[in-house]
Design a protein that fits this description.
heterotrimer, A mainly alpha, B alpha/beta, C mainly alpha, B: alpha/beta, Rossmann fold, six-stranded mixed beta sheet, five-stranded antiparallel beta sheet, 11 strands, about 40% helix, globular, C: mainly alpha, MetI-like fold
Chain lengths: ~325, ~260, ~300
C-alpha cells in the first residue's frame, strides 16, 4: 500500500513537472500567441480583448493555475491552424499511432523473444553472432532513413507495399470509428475489405518499427536468459532429465517473463516517442505527424497539447514498469 | 557388492587449471562419503557423473560406468534417460536449486509425469504422497507454495522428494544439510537415511564435515586439491594415515576434556 | 573493475597509477575486435571532421545547377544533390556538425550529471530528494519530444537543438553518479580521508568523483550513438542547422523529394549516420565490457 502511495505521489510530481515544463516552453515562444489568433491587422482593442481572454495579462503563476485547470477539464486549447479544439484533433489522431505502435511491438515480441532465447542457448555461436549483428544495426540505423529506403524498395520499386495513409482513399470513413483502431473497427463492422486494406497499409511501417522493437527486445531477452542459464535451478532441471527444450522455454523463460513485461512496455514507449519521425516518412496520420505538422505551421497550442499527451503516456508507461511489474513476480510479493 | 558406479582416472579442468586430478573409485548400493574443503573439487565430481559440468569446464576419464552403462560414450538422449530416472541430485540451497517461479508441487509432478508417465490426477496424488514421505506435515499446503516461501529444511526435503520421484538407483547429495541449522539438518539427514535404506539406493554424500559423514556413511573418501587422498571404511577412520585426513580428524570439535 | 594483476608493479605516484590503468584499458579494448572496429570508426570520423576542408574535393556549398542530381561517377564520387552540390563534400562538412554535437554533449552533459549526482549522493536528505525529483521529471520526458518542443519554442538552430538534447540527456548520468557516490562514501578510505581533515569539497572532487568516471564514460559512449540519431532526427525535421549548411539529417530530408530516381542524395547521408552511430555503439559496448561488465 505504501508503495502504491509513493508511486502515486511520484506520478503526480512527474506529471506536474511535465506541465510546468510545457508551460514554460510555451512561454519561451518568440511568437506572440495573441497575434497568431487575431492576425496582425487587428485593432488594438481587439488585441487587448483577446489578450485578456487568453489570460495573458495576469501574473505568471495565475496563468499556470489557469493552464492546469483547463487541462484538468480536458481543454488543450484551440488549434490556430484548424480552429478545432486541440483535444479533439488529438483524439482523432492518437489511435493511429497506438495501432501502429501496438502492431510493431507485437512483431518485436513474437520474433524478438524467441530470437533472444535461441541466441542465449547458442551463446557465442553463430545464431548469437547473427543476432548481435541484427540488433547492432537496429541501434545504429536511423529509423526515418530506413523507412525511406524501405518505401523506395518495397513501394516504389517492387510495388509490394501499399501507399501512404492507413487505408486506400476510397475506403476512408466506410466503417464507423468506434475505437479509432481500424483493425478493431473493421472487425466490429464485419468489413473484411477494410481490415485487409488497413493491414496492407500497416505492413511496411509496422515492419520497420517492428525491426527496431525486435533489436531491443531480443537483446534484452538474450541478457536475461543468459543470467538464468547460469543458475543452479537450471542445472537441476537438466539433472531431472528434462529435455533441453523444456529447460529453456519453460523453466528459464518462465523466470524471465516479468522482466520481459518491463522490456515490452519500454519498447512500446520508445515507439511512441519515435512516432514523430516515422509518421512523417510514411505519411501516417498519427499524433507524431500532428505534432511535426503543427510545429512547421507554428501552431503552438497543438504542439504543446501533443507533447503533453505523448509525455503523459510516456510517464504513465514508465511508472507502470516501476510499480506494477515489481508486484507480479512471486518472489517479490 | 556389485559396482553401481565405477570411475577411473577422472580429470576436470577449467582451461589449463585442473580442478579434479585423476579421481578413481567404485561404489555399490552403499553410502559413500566424499569429504574435502571448499574448492577441493568434490562438487565437480558429482556434476561430472551427471555430465552437467559448468560452462568452461572440460573432463576426461579412462572409465566412467553407471550400472554397466558407459557414461563417457552416452549421447545427450541417453544421459537424459539416466538423469532423474536412475541418478538423482540434491544441492545445498533449495532457494537456488528449485525453480523460483514454479510451485513445489508442480516441480515434483513434473518428475512424475516425465519418468513415471502419470496423468495429471495421479501425478498430483503421488506428489502429495512423496511430500508426505519426506515428513512434510501438510503436503497439500506445501504443494501450492513457492520455494522462497519454505524454510530451508522444508525446501531441502521437498527437493529430496522431487529427486526421488523418478525412483533412482543412485543419489548424489551435494552438501544437503550444510545450509541448515542443526535441527533442520538432523531432520533432512534422517529423511535421507530412511529413504535411502528403504529403497536400497546408493548414496554419494558430498560434504566438508567429516564428523557428520563418519556417523552417517559406510565408507569415506577424502579429497584434497582435486586428488582423492584417502579411502576407507567409516569405522576405520581413526586409523587413517594420510596427513590431510589426520588434520581433518584433529580439527573436529571434541566434547571430552583434553588428556 | 580493477584490471591489476596480483603481481603488478607498485606505481610511483597516483598519476602513474592512473596512466597505467588507462594503458591497461586501452590494451584490453584493442583485444576485442568489435571494440577495435568501433575505435577505428570513431577515429576516422574525428579525422574526417578535422580535415574536412582539406579532404573535400569541392566546396560543400558550391552550386552547379547544370550538374544537379548527377549520379555517382568519376567527377562526383557520391553524385550531386538538387542544387548541384557535391554530396561527398557535403557529407564531410556534415561530419563536422555531427562531431561538434557529440563533442559538446559529451563534454558537458556527463560532467553536469556527475556534479548533480555526486552532490545528491553525498549530501543526501532534502538536497538529494529535490535533485532526484528534478532528474526524474526530465528522465520521464521522451527525449525527442522534449527536444521538439524546445526547438519549436525557441526556433530552429544548432544551439537550440544542443540545449534540447542536453536537457533530455543529463538525468541518467546524475542517477548513475548518485548511485556510485552512495556506494563509495561508505568506504573506509573516505572515512580515513575525512579523519585526516579533508573538506567535503575535497573529498568529492578528488576522491569520489574520479571513481564514478568509468561507469559514466561507458554510459557516455553508448549515449553518443543515441545523440547522433536524435540530432539527425531533428535535422530531418528541419529543426537543426539552418540551410545551406550541410547536416546529415537535413540532407536526407532534402533528398526525400528525389528519392525515386536520384536515391543517392538521401542514401549517402543515411549510411554516414549509420556508420558513425555504429562506431560509437561498438566502442561503447567494448568499453562497457572492459570497465563495467555489470552493466550489460
Amino acid at each position: 500500500m505504501r508503495a502504491m502511495l509513493s508511486l502515486g505521489a511520484k506520478a503526480a510530481l512527474t506529471l506536474f513537472g511535465l506541465l510546468l515544463v510545457t508551460f514554460l516552453i510555451a512561454r519561451v515562444v518568440p511568437i506572440d500567441p495573441v497575434l497568431a489568433v487575431v492576425g496582425d491587422r487587428a485593432s488594438s482593442e481587439t488585441y487587448a480583448r483577446v489578450r485578456a481572454e487568453m489570460g495573458l495579462d495576469r501574473p505568471v503563476a495565475v496563468q499556470f493555475g489557469r493552464y492546469v485547470t483547463m487541462l484538468a477539464e480536458g481543454d488543450l486549447g484551440q488549434s490556430a491552424l484548424t480552429r478545432a479544439k486541440v483535444a479533439d484533433d488529438i483524439a482523432r489522431f492518437f489511435p493511429a499511432t497506438l495501432e501502429l505502435a501496438t502492431v510493431a511491438t507485437l512483431i518485436g515480441l513474437v520474433l524478438g523473444i524467441p530470437a533472444g532465447v535461441i541466441a542465449a542457448a547458442r551463446h557465442n555461436r553463430w545464431p548469437d553472432h547473427a543476432l548481435r549483428l541484427v540488433s547492432l544495426f537496429g541501434y545504429s540505423v536511423p529509423v526515418f532513413w530506413l523507412g525511406l529506403m524501405a518505401l523506395l524498395l518495397f513501394y516504389a520499386d517492387l510495388g509490394w507495399a501499399a501507399g501512404p495513409g492507413r487505408l486506400d482513399p476510397w475506403l476512408e470513413d466506410v466503417v464507423r470509428p468506434r475505437s479509432g483502431l481500424l483493425l478493431v473497427d473493421g472487425v466490429l463492422a464485419g468489413n473484411g475489405t477494410v481490415v485487409l486494406s488497413a493491414l496492407r497499409h500497416l505492413a511496411l511501417p509496422a515492419a520497420i518499427l517492428g525491426y527496431y522493437s525486435l533489436a531491443y527486445i531480443s537483446r534484452m531477452t538474450r541478457s536475461l536468459m543468459l543470467e538464468q542459464l547460469n543458475q543452479d535451478y537450471i542445472a537441476v532441471a537438466r539433472a531431472k532429465g528434462l529435455s533441453e527444450t523444456r529447460v529453456l522455454w519453460c523453466h528459464a523463460l518462465g523466470n524471465v517473463l516479468v522482466p520481459l513485461a518491463t522490456v515490452a512496455t519500454l519498447a512500446y514507449a520508445q515507439l511512441l516517442e519515435g512516432s514523430v519521425l516515422t509518421e512523417t516518412v510514411f505519411a501516417w496520420p498519427g499524433i507524431g505527424r500532428y505534432i511535426t505538422g503543427s510545429l512547421l505551421s507554428l501552431d503552438m497550442n497543438a504542439v504543446m497539447g501533443g507533447t503533453l499527451v505523448v509525455g503523459a503516456v510516456f510517464i504513465f508507461l514508465n511508472l507502470l514498469v516501476e510499480g506494477l511489474y515489481g508486484r507480479l513476480d512471486p518472489r517479490l510479493r | 557388492m556389485s559396482a553401481l558406479l565405477e570411475i577411473e582416472d577422472l580429470h576436470v579442468s577449467f582451461g589449463t587449471a585442473e580442478a579434479v586430478r585423476g579421481a578413481s573409485f567404485a561404489m555399490g548400493r552403499e553410502r559413500l562419503a566424499l569429504v574435502g574443503g571448499s574448492g577441493a573439487g568434490k562438487s565437480l565430481i558429482g556434476r561430472a557423473i551427471l555430465r552437467l559440468l559448468p560452462a568452461g569446464a572440460s573432463m576426461t576419464a579412462a572409465r566412467m560406468n553407471f550400472d554397466g552403462i558407459d557414461l563417457l560414450a552416452a549421447g545427450p538422449r541417453e544421459m537424459r534417460a539416466l538423469r532423474g530416472r536412475r541418478i538423482g541430485w540434491v544441492l545445498q540451497d533449495p532457494k537456488f536449486s528449485l525453480n523460483p517461479v514454479m510451485s513445489v508441487g508442480t516441480q515434483v509432478e513434473e518428475m512424475l509425469r516425465l519418468h513415471r508417465r502419470l496423468d495429471r490426477r495421479a501425478a498430483r496424488e503421488e506428489a502429495l504422497a512423496l511430500l508426505e514421505s519426506v515428513w512434510l506435515r501438510e503436503p497439500a499446503r506445501v504443494h501450492a507454495l513457492y520455494p522462497h516461501e519454505l524454510s530451508g529444511g522444508m525446501g531441502q526435503r521437498a527437493m529430496i522428494a522431487m529427486m526421488l520421484a523418478g525412483e533412482p538407483d543412485l543419489l548424489i547429495a551435494d552438501e544437503p544439510s550444510s545450509a541448515l541449522d542443526a535441527g533442520a539438518a538432523l531432520q533432512v539427514l534422517a529423511v535421507l537415511d530412511d529413504l535411502v535404506a528403504r529403497r536400497g539406493m546408493g548414496l554419494l554424500f558430498i560434504s566438508h564435515d567429516l564428523t557428520l559423514v563418519e556417523g552417517f556413511c559406510d565408507r569415506v573418501m577424502v579429497i584434497e586439491a582435486g586428488s582423492i587422498v584417502e579411502s576407507c571404511d567409516a569405522a576405520a577412520l581413526g586409523e587413517a594415515r594420510h596427513p590431510y585426513t589426520r588434520r581433518l580428524l584433529a580439527a573436529r570439535p571434541r566434547l571430552e576434556a583434553a588428556p | 573493475m580493477s584490471l591489476a594483476h596480483p603481481d603488478a608493479y607498485e606505481p610511483a605516484s597516483s598519476l602513474a597509477a592512473r596512466l597505467t590503468g588507462a594503458a591497461e584499458t586501452a590494451r584490453a579494448l584493442a583485444a576485442d575486435r568489435s571494440a577495435l572496429a568501433g575505435m577505428v570508426i570513431v577515429t576516422l570520423l574525428i579525422l574526417a571532421a578535422a580535415a574536412a576542408p582539406l579532404l573535400a574535393p569541392y566546396d560543400p556549398n558550391a552550386q552547379d545547377l547544370a550538374l544537379r542530381l548527377a549520379p555517382p561517377g568519376a567527377a562526383h564520387w557520391l553524385g550531386t544533390d538538387e542544387l548541384g552540390r557535391d554530396v561527398l563534400s557535403r557529407l564531410l562538412a556534415g561530419s563536422r556538425i555531427t562531431l561538434a554535437v557529440v563533442a559538446l554533449i559529451a563534454l558537458t552533459v556527463p560532467a553536469a550529471g556527475l556534479a548533480v549526482g555526486c552532490l545528491a549522493g553525498f549530501a543526501g536528505g532534502i538536497v538529494d530528494a529535490v535533485l532526484m525529483r528534478i532528474a526524474d521529471v526530465f528522465l520521464a520526458f521522451p527525449r525527442l519530444i522534449l527536444a521538439l518542443a524546445l526547438v519549436a519554442a525557441m526556433g530552429p538552430g544548432l544551439s537550440h537543438a544542443l540545449i534540447a538534447i542536453a536537457l533530455a540527456a543529463w538525468p541518467p548520468y546524475a542517477r548513475l553518479a548518485r548511485a556510485e557516490t552512495m556506494a563509495i562514501r561508505e568506504r573506509d578510505f573516505i572515512a580515513a580521508a575525512r579523519l585526516s581533515g579533508a573538506s567535503p569539497a575535497r573529498l568529492l572532487l578528488l576522491h569520489i568523483a574520479p571513481l564514478c568516471l568509468p561507469s559514466l564514460i561507458v554510459r557516455a559512449s553508448l549515449d553518443m550513438a543515441g545523440v547522433i540519431l536524435t540530432a539527425a532526427g531533428l535535422g530531418f525535421l528541419g529543426l537543426g542547422v539552418a540551410p545551406p549548411q550541410a547536416e546529415w539529417g537535413a540532407m536526407i530530408a532534402a533528398g526525400r523529394r528525389f528519392m525515386l530516381d536520384q536515391w543517392w542524395v538521401a542514401a549517402a547521408p543515411g549510411v554516414a549516420i549509420a556508420v558513425a552511430t555504429l562506431g560509437f555503439n561498438l566502442l561503447g559496448e567494448g568499453l562497457r565490457d572492459v570497465l563495467d561488465p555489470r552493466q550489460r
